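Known limitations

Files may contain more than one protein. Parsers should not assume a single record per file. Below, a two-record file is shown to illustrate correct handling: read the sequence, read the token line, then continue until end of file.
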Amino acid sequence: MIRSVLSRRRFGALLLSGSLALALPARAQEAPVEIPPPDADPAEQGASTTALFAGGCFWGVQGVFQRVKGVTRAVSGYAGGAAETASYDRVTSGTTGHAETVEVTYDPGVISYGRLLQIFFSVAHNPTQLNFQGPDHGTQYRSALFPMSEQQAETARAYIAQLDAAGFFPKPIVTTLEPYEGFYPAEQYHQDFLTLYPTWPYIVVNDLPKVEALKTLFADVYRAQPVLVGQL
């Protein structure tokens, strides 16, 4: 099953052809740069809040957020489409409306939504790539946010405008804000993939650099021991 998943990530052909450099995401080939936090980051109420982030293959996005202090759960899954099409075999067709998404549950008293956005745009993915990340192409790999409240939507919208206006990226941010209509956890074999399979070439090339960037740029919120779905 795992080998077939990797082949459908279009990585096997690149590896066999020797074109490993083609599999590197643009951001992974550059020195990571920490972007500033949002100018406005309103405090959220309660002990636990949820946010959804789509930024290409969910393995790396999940692996990053699992290592952020204040995050109590990060689950790989699908958002943007209907419940009946929320399976890996269907989503990989690129016709379901789903994006590979990570549902992040966090304590807003420890980590804010704005800080999570800063990490998302800084190290979790490249927000200027339209409908692809690294070797993965299709709308299912788009950069998207599914705000769970108007407050999250306003914060995200303002932050994107702030970053675009300041020119922190060489191209405009293409991240979309889409209505939340449900989140569907991915198959169990996708959960905790970065931690369980750290030597897979895809993970080594595309995702471990994201974790290293998190450790370097966000040392104050980085934790070495991830919170894993399999342990909850």
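...continuing to the second record:
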Amino acid sequence: MFGGSLSVNPESDAAKQIWADLLGAEVVTYGVGGAGFAREQGYSLQRQVDEAEVFDVYVLWASTNDYMNGRECGTWQDYTVIDGYDVSRLSTQCGGINYCIRKLLEKNPSAEIYFFTSLRFFSRDSGCNPFSLEVNSTGKTFADYVQAQKDCCAYYGIPVLDQFSLQGINRFNVGLYYKEDLLHMTEEGYSRIGPVQAAFLAGGF
């Protein structure tokens, strides 16, 4: 498992326990709070993947950090054969995603890779409204970042769990599942999304 704080916070153990119970899986977490896919975003997923051991299954869990910190979104073509694996594109979310996919398959070509999109956050309209016109400093909406995540995975045929759309949490029930910062989930939030994640992962276990 690679990601930002949502993948590693203590509350996330509630979801991981569901995976372990339903799938018989041992979960190893490399996630670091503040991380994003872009090379400059914290202890990035690129760095996490570089340090990973060889496993049968890898999960890339997208955070909100690239969007919130104004890292360029990029496109599905970033750091692919199309641009000659241009290392300058590792500074975009998409370049980072594509780097992680390539690196993991170099470690284990037979590994199964799964992708969790960013979850919603409720501290601003763009974080929870897919139709919001609110943009970050790069001129992109959060929905743009989520769509770009899915585009990168589509290019490589990586299965995607669209958590942004399937989480089932909205303005009417957010208080039951999110902390006061409206960004991080409580244990109840992970208990809600955990079975959805496990069902998704069950397709390949």
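Parsers that stop after the first record will miss the second one. For reference, the second record is described as follows. The radius of gyration is 16 Å.
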